[in-house]
Structures are given as C-alpha cells and as structure tokens.
Design goal:
The protein contains 9 helices and 17 strands. By secondary structure, it is of the alpha/beta class. Strands 3, 4, 5, 8, 9, 16 and 17 form a 7-stranded mixed beta sheet that branches. The chain has a 6-stranded parallel beta sheet with strand order 12-11-10-13-14-15. Strands 1-2 form a two-stranded antiparallel sheet.
Length: 348
C-alpha cells in the first residue's frame, strides 16, 4: 500500500516528505487511516540517533489514533469506521513467559516496535510509524478508544499515558498515598492526572516555581520546589512513592531522602544518571524502572481515562511544522504534548 509520510533521512537533517509501501492486509490485520499522531521525546531521540540504533529513512510516531478502514478475514473484534489506537509496539513473540503474562513490552525475543524494528512481515525492511497516512497492524496490538473523549487529545495516552499509568498500578497507588511526580512535561502532566484520579495526595516536584499553579490545575495538592533545600528537608521521609519522568540526564540523589523507609522511586526515562547509594542502603529504599505497559494494561488505562474523563493537554500542529515542534520540545516549550493533525499530510 503506497503510503505518504514524513521521515528522518539522517541524524542531522530536518524531517521531510517520504513515500513507502505498507504491507498488504493479512487475515489477522487491521488497516487504519491515521487521524492524529502524538510527538514523543523518543521520536526525537530516534530521529537524531541518540541511542545509536536508528536505521534511515525512519518514520517516527507511536501515539496513533485513527479509524479502521479495513479488517482481515479473521478479525472479529474491530469493524470498519471504529475509532482505535496503536501504541509503542505492534508485535511480539507471544510465546515467552512475559508475553503470556501480558507484558509484551518485555518479550524475551524483543518486542516489535511501531517504528525502527525489523519487520517480520516484510523481510529486509523496518517498521515505520505514525507520521503517516495509514498503518496496518495485527489485531492483537490494536486498542479500543472512547468516542466520548477529545479525539486529538487521546493520542499521547498511547505512550505518555501508559508510561505513567503502569508504574502507579505496579506499585499499587491508592487513595491517601503521598505520591510525588518529578518533572512536569509530557509524561509528568499525565502522572499528575492519573495519581490524582486514583485518590493519591499528589505533590508536584519541580525545579520551576512557575509551574506550580499549572500543576495544581492538573490535580496536584501541593508543589515542592526541588531547588529549595528547606522545602526538600521539610518533606524528607514522607513519600510513599516517587515517579520520575525527567527525560534527560540527571541525578536521583536529591529525591531519595524524600522517600519513607522501604519505599520506591520509579523512573520512566531512559537516561544516564550518576547515583550515590548511601541514601538507598540506610533507608532500604528502592529505585526501579518501568517501560510502557502491555496491551492488556494499556487497554485498562484507556478505559480508566474514559471513566475519569482524562486526556492529555495538547497543542495541535500540522505535519509541516514538525521540525519546529522538535526544537520546542527540546526547549520544554509545549504544554504538554504536540499532536499532529495527519490530514495536513495531504498538503505535504
């Protein structure tokens, strides 16, 4: 299927128009016309080859919302015209224990990412993402989304949403828990919304006092300015859980003293960090990581959003503005997530 897109051609040049072939529909496939695609910081890392794994040309985008155009002969759970989503992965081995436990993102043979992974359906090629007019995905990796919510603001839920929802669920956040979200950006603002909806006493932890009022609008009960030593000391040893959403290199050291004995800081950023362990061993504290979520949990998150009327705060752009959007994301100049109106691709 001839497909229009925007792609990165190398690590330094701006993204530009690109045409490529999607695979033909198979019996278990869903063919989706893409309406909106979110812009994730991971897209920028991959476009710039920051992780040393990018194969060019590459079409980014793994926060996809669209409508079913066609279904394969064995697909019974989706119908033409239905609103659906596709997140960070489009396949896995489905045989290993993590896959059987609905943790496909931890597939022992490696999940097939929505873009940048070898494509088993088209040998010799790599998967291409959602900055495109259409996508073909196996039915088991397609998600149902609610028509009741703002459709364009649903797109970031497929990455930013599940990335922050999953650790809150993994560590059983409940009403009355004191939870800190570190960093108010595309991920952090979703963490605030989810933790507040779960009934937690949410404290926004930020280096920027100016973000405090916005954090309260999003659901934070308090704001803790991490650069203020007196404020940090006053809240030492009082948190049940910390969710670190900072997407760039930083130290965990200032935050470890905030945790109660035996409690956890979960990081969702794939970033380098220097860390002193003294604060861990004396308080038996835990630092752990979390990677998106499985398909079952992602569907649970989308249903939770429909129940609690949760979407991302977004700024809608045309695909022609994607390079300026990348520059703004790197400057943290967006509240809080860019979403591409893929109709604009027709004018590209």
């Amino acid at each position: 299927m001839q497909t229009k897109a925007y792609a990165a051609y190398d690590s330094t040049e701006p993204l530009k128009s690109f045409n490529f072939e999607r695979r033909d529909l198979k019996a278990t496939d869903v063919h989706i016309d893409i309406a909106y695609c979110g812009v994730c910081h991971s897209d920028i890392h991959m476009a710039h080859n920051d992780w040393g794994m990018t194969v060019y040309p590459m079409v980014p985008g793994h926060e996809i919302i669209g409508r079913v155009k066609q279904v394969g002969t064995e697909v019974t759970n989706f119908k033409v015209g239905e609103l659906v989503g596709v997140g960070c992965m489009v396949d896995s081995c489905r045989q290993c224990q993590p896959c059987k436990d609905h943790l496909e993102q931890h597939c022992e043979k490696g999940m097939t990412m929505t873009y940048g992974s070898p494509d088993a359906h088209m040998p010799g090629s790599f998967t291409q993402g959602g900055y495109s007019s259409q996508i073909v995905v196996d039915k088991d990796f397609v998600l149902k989304v609610s028509e009741k919510l703002d459709i364009k603001a649903l797109a970031p839920l497929l990455c930013a949403g599940i990335t922050t929802y999953s650790p809150l669920r993994q560590w059983n956040i409940k009403a009355g828990d004191k939870v800190g979200v570190i960093g108010l950006g595309g991920l952090g603002h979703m963490g605030v919304k989810f933790a507040a909806a779960m009934g937690a006493h949410l404290v926004m932890n930020t280096t920027s006092p100016a973000k405090g009022e916005d954090a309260k609008r999003l659901g934070a009960a308090e704001v803790l300015v991490s650069s203020d030593e007196k404020q940090m000391q006053a809240q030492a040893g009082s948190f049940d859980f910390l969710l670190d959403t900072i997407p760039v290199a930083h130290s965990f050291d200032p935050y470890i003293p905030l945790l109660k004995f035996g409690k956890t800081l979960a990081t969702v950023g794939a970033t380098p960090s220097d860390m002193h362990t003294m604060g861990l061993v004396f308080g038996r504290k835990i630092i752990t990581g979390s990677l998106i979520g499985g398909i079952k949990e992602t569907q649970e998150m989308l249903d939770f959003c429909a129940e609690h009327n949760i979407v991302s705060d977004v700024e809608l752009i045309n695909i022609q503005d994607i390079n300026q959007a990348y520059e703004r994301v790197m400057k943290s100049d967006v509240k809080y997530r860019f979403v591409i109106d893929m109709q604009s691709l027709q004018q590209a």
